[in-house]
Specification:
heterotetramer, A: 362 residues, alpha/beta, Rossmann fold, 2 domains, globular, B: alpha/beta, 6-stranded parallel beta sheet, two-stranded antiparallel ribbon, 12 helices, 8 strands, 11% strand, binds magnesium ion, PDH_E1_Alpha_Subunit (chains B, C)
Chain lengths: 362, 327, 327, 362
């Protein structure tokens, strides 16, 4: 049964939406799901700016014409938007992601603010050309001021992450691949409050932004408004003096758990949630490393962790008293079977063990 | 929204079984149909019972395309498939126990539990691989076709794909490629009317998928995909063409999806009557009884059905008893 | 290799100019044609002289598609283009000095020397961007079309693309998308018979590109692309349809590529006579004189030609004198 | 004029091929171009194994049917192969790279050994799906033994690199993106001898390999046979005691130049050419760092350099006496104008200056 609660159904996502809709007066008062926070961000942005459109497969849903609110996308995040904003602004597409992203770029350069729902992040690879060869380049080539072809206020949302038995082609992280495209901003919210805040900022932003949503987080709950950190600022989720643990997206929860376990054994780990990887908040990380002297990174994307480790080695070498410790999955696709998949992304015990070694042998 | 044009309907074809549809064909076909149906029903039950992790995409109602195509192919031919591939594997002869064990994430699974429902492979039986990126099955099969052509094995490759998937660039590129290189490739589209919740007629702008393929220069046919005998005949013709070096074919088979898109689908986007209507009009098993049974009497059909049910039940039990895949 | 079927030939159409082709149209068209030709000739000279770094893809012989399309569009309409985009930019009104300076890598270039020949952009004149990934111009234009539709500006978007490019998945996906969303999009394929050294008929399996597009549900036409008046008329019709909300169109224009694929091309793959034949039969300037000049006499044409030559020569000189782009 | 010599024409590439063809008896005796070495590797492999086929746009060339030897691809590397091996093994395709790569994978799994000519590496992004979602995964999912669907003995060749005024979409490096796909081997020959040796190995290899050819190298010359280092072994191109400079592909020559410049000033730099980035020869690098204590990397792909720096920080931290020094282009697309493009990839003076600072302040 546990395997079934994680992937979202149309039913539970609509429920998530309506429960949010029931208390619009004080959105921060009661806890909402990560999914509902994303929906709210879309809803608010669309209400505020007629140029914001949502594009994707089944984002309206319902045989292409949205029966009673539609399904709201594979994860239910866009549920209800069709009823409120109509087919001209909640646009169901054929399964043609390459054209979808390229079209979004063309639309962004000519007056719209498209928010593309890519569904699973793995599907970005059928649409890599517009991402790499156009969206990541047009600003520098053509100028990014309004009216210029490189002005691309567009958002791409995509879900990733192990843990829902989706298999190899519906689970892979994407952020390692995107980090090589400096022109594309990159947010990975780990809480409902950040889901709302980062997606809201992304839609308002003049530059292209990819928002990566961890599948395991959709049903987690929390307040809609958090301590309002600005875009680009990392959050110190837990203070500590012995090591700095950068934990990305789905890894924040097991990282905190690991830190608590170690706390009982005299090791205090500072856990940092980067919130955005582009920009990467080197300031907060460096300040933390100045206190702790030890760097660990836990991330489902080993390549992203290596890039961040490389950057910190380059810029904060003098602060490091030990080699950076990467707590990441072994190479290879995300496996299907629960026993294999659960052993893939490092869990709290594995993270704790790696940190213990870092802080004692290191 | 443009109205659908020349899209075939499952359950509509009233032509008699082809002349060369022998009782041996019918016997094999019936065994395949009931094996596939029983298996998918067992999958849904096992999923509901919590024995199958994640979600599954069963092909209930789409048995005739799997079985008809497999019957028309020869040893050495290669097949690729999609996220909805259990039936294709079974029709080609994949061991139901290994398949069920894969869906359950067991160490004895077809690919040792690494893949799950969407990632199957059984090349010895002609199933090169299934693919969870929609459309990707088609150019992959083009590769097997290129290999057969270059190595002059006389083999053909067949790609199963869906109506939604045929809007992917990779599928169109594969068509262009197959025509330019005269590849022995068969593209068999199971048009079940939907891609997730999106109607095929909406996504494809009401165009006939077969007519689109014809524009690329493929020999393109539509077929009532609820009729195993007609699918068999269409694939046989396409395979003959391919073996003669006459290039690729495209078959648009109209099928009825009798379950949801996947096991979690509440199907709010289609009326309950649609499924009832499809079950009545387009069930491949009923259609077989009505149109393709040849000389087989009820007792024979019942005996085959019992055999297959036993085999699936045994597979289910064996898979359940197998150890979980683990690190 | 299948024989080409229903692919149009440049220089073959003998119909008279359309009725609404006024002398004002003819005057503007002639100015555009000679400006484009003179510019591309100047580019080849400058390239040979070492003034243009890298390689260039000139559109000599393809002037009528650029000019005819630009004449048919309205302010606010948006155009995307390819690696062979100088003429498209010029026809839309891009400053020849800025364009030449871009090709020469000057600080005063259209995009400050950052892009070069293949990466142009001049949105104020309706040129959204050119793209060096073949096919990519088409879905990008679909985006401008979506914007026009959503914001109800009454605008249309036109994508120039090549015959080779139309085998890219992104182009097919854009067609599917444009039909499903009824986008005000015009796809104008300049079929010059080749993609690099590969014959269009080989790569597209001898299929008509227009017929392929028709299969997707686009209104699709073929046109003699050496006739500026006929291109103008075809694009005007397509733009009218688009503005009325009737959805996307596809125009396959047969053109003759009078130079190599790019400036380094030795053209061993086609006989020298082919270029001579194209120059005689399918040169848009000669075809204009024969078919589309309306009431304009030789003296008028000569005067316009002199003006345009002067403008291009001045642009060349100004670009040469401009400072190189540097860090 | 200098701008014109670098991009290869059909003419000069055929010349390259015929001059190689003129002395088949002792291939290592006289210098050949990098291009000719690649051609030779293809020619030898095709002669030795009937399963080797070449697939790409214009690889035969000549209106799809190869007029007198054809053009041999955009860089002339496959010139002559059509005449020798015919249309069944030198396969001109439509411009459909996604289908091309996927087809190559299907063919490799069923008995062929395809060598795909992708032309410019930038075009990999229209074909990223088969690369990332299939080729990089099939071995682990389905097994990689002969007869299994993950047995993918295929090679993808692609050209990259700044310096030939090709502009933003015909110059980008790809290896940073490929490093996140551990199942795909990755070779970047910097000499004709390595071009021959690495491509030969790649074709013989049972696993998928990408061979990235730097455009500026095609016309460089050298012996066909070098000191036969095995696949996966990095080459110490120049010994030194003060710093280890890892130089990738087109950066090897300016790196050597920089090292020579510094030698006059009492700084001795060890220059290492990795030859393959997957596998990455950590052994040779670590041994070098043990001597020098300082790491510099010069690479047109900053992301690749960051990944390598991250890995070395993780595995060889104790050897580092100074922060890794990445000598890479600034973010953004490769610009067109010569003055801009020449300032993009670090040249010898910039490399030397960075090394001088590393070795004196570091
Ligand atoms: C490239 C890509 N985009 C989207 C998806 C998500 N997805 C999985 S199945 C599916 C619908 C496929 O429809 P169809 O091809 O008709 O097959 P059916 O499910 O009806 O058998 C979609 C959109 C995917 N797997 N791959
Ligand atoms: C995706 C991609 N593949 C390959 C190329 C290399 N390339 C540049 S132009 C060209 C031929 C294009 O032919 P066509 O579309 O007919 O345009 P033409 O050059 O004839 O104007 C090719 C293959 C590219 N730029 N992009
Ligand atoms: Mg379907
Ligand atoms: Mg062409």
């Amino acid at each position: 049964m546990t395997d079934r609660t994680e992937p979202s159904s149309a039913a539970c996502s609509s429920a998530g939406y309506s429960s949010l809709g029931a208390s619009p007066a004080d959105p921060s008062a009661e806890p909402v799901t990560y999914r509902a926070a994303l929906t709210r961000a879309l809803d608010d942005a669309m209400a505020a700016d007629a140029g914001v459109v949502v594009i994707g497969e089944d984002v309206a849903g319902g045989a292409g014409a949205a029966a009673q609110g539609g399904t709201g996308g594979a994860f239910g995040v866009t549920a209800g938007l069709y009823d409120r904003f109509g087919a001209e602004r909640v646009i169901d597409t054929p399964i043609a992601e390459s054209a979808m992203l390229s079209m979004a770029a063309g639309a962004a350069a000519t007056g719209l603010r498209p928010v593309v729902d890519l569904m699973f992040a793995d599907f970005a690879h059928v649409a890599a050309d517009p991402l790499v060869n156009h969206i990541a380049q047009a600003g520098a080539l053509f100028g990014d001021a309004p009216g210029q072809a490189g002005h691309l206020p567009l958002v791409i949302r995509a879900a990733f992450g192990a843990g829902d038995r989706s298999g190899a082609q519906h689970s892979q992280p994407l952020h390692g691949a995107l980090l090589r495209l400096p022109a594309i901003r990159l947010a990975l919210p780990a809480t409902p409050a950040d889901a709302y805040a980062l997606l809201t900022h992304a839609i308002a932003c003049a530059e292209p932004v990819v928002v990566l949503e961890h599948k395991r987080l959709y049903d987690t709950t929390g307040p809609l408004a958090g301590d309002a950190l600005p875009w680009g600022r990392a959050r110190v989720v837990r203070a500590g003096r012995d090591a700095t643990l950068l934990a990305v997206a789905g890894q924040v929860a097991p990282a905190l758990d690991a830190a608590e376990r170690l706390s009982g054994h005299g090791i205090e780990v500072e856990v940092v949630d980067p919130r955005t990887l582009n920009p990467l908040d080197l300031g907060t990380l460096t300040a933390s490393l100045a206190r702790t002297g030890r760097l660990a990174i836990t991330d489902e994307d080993r390549c992203a962790a290596e890039i961040v480790a490389g950057r910190l080695a380059e810029t904060a070498f003098a602060l490091l008293q030990a080699p950076p410790c990467l707590i990441c999955p072994a190479p290879g696709p995300v496996p299907f079977a629960p026993g294999l998949e659960d052993a893939w992304a490092p869990d709290a015990p594995r993270i704790a063990e790696a940190l213990r070694r870092l802080c004692t042998d290191g | 929204m443009p109205a659908p044009t020349s899209q075939p309907t499952p359950g509509s074809d009233q032509t008699p079984a082809p002349n060369d549809w022998t009782d041996a064909c019918a016997r094999a076909a019936w065994a395949g149909l009931v094996r596939c149906r029983r298996f998918e029903d067992a999958v849904m039950d096992a999923w509901r019972a919590g024995d199958i992790p994640g979600v599954v995409h069963v092909a209930t109602g789409q048995e005739a395309t799997a079985v008809g195509a497999a019957l028309a192919l020869a040893p050495g031919d290669m097949v690729t498939s999609t996220h909805r591939g259990h039936g294709h594997a079974l029709a080609l002869g994949t061991d139901p126990t290994a398949l069920m064990a894969e869906l359950m994430g067991r160490r004895t699974g077809l690919v040792a539990g690494r893949g799950g429902s969407k990632h199957l492979s059984d090349p010895e039986r002609g199933l090169l691989a299934t693919n969870a990126i929609v459309g990707a099955s088609v150019p992959l099969a083009a590769g097997a076709a290129l290999s057969a052509k270059t190595r002059q094995t006389g083999g053909v490759a067949l790609a199963f794909t869906g109506d939604g998937a045929t809007n992917q660039g990779a599928v169109f590129e594969a068509m262009v490629m197959a025509v330019a290189l005269a590849l022995p490739l068969i593209i068999l589209v199971e048009n079940n009317g939907y891609a997730q919740t999106t109607a095929s007629a909406y996504a494809s702008g009401g165009q006939s998928l077969a007519a689109r393929a014809r524009g690329f220069g493929l020999a393109a046919d539509t077929v009532d995909g609820s009729r195993v005998d007609l699918v068999w005949s269409a694939v046989s013709r396409a395979a003959d063409r391919a073996r003669l070096g006459l290039g690729p074919s495209f078959i648009e088979a109209a099928v009825g999806r009798l379950e949801g898109f996947f096991s979690l689908d509440a199907q709010a986007y289609r009326g309950a009557d649609e499924v009832a209507r499809l079950r009545a009009a387009a069930c491949p098993l009923a259609r077989f009884r009505a149109k393709a049974r040849g000389g087989l009497d009820d007792a024979t059909l019942a005996a085959i059905e019992t055999d297959q049910a036993d085999a699936v039940d045994a597979a289910l039990a064996a898979a359940r008893a197998a150890p979980p895949a683990g690190p």
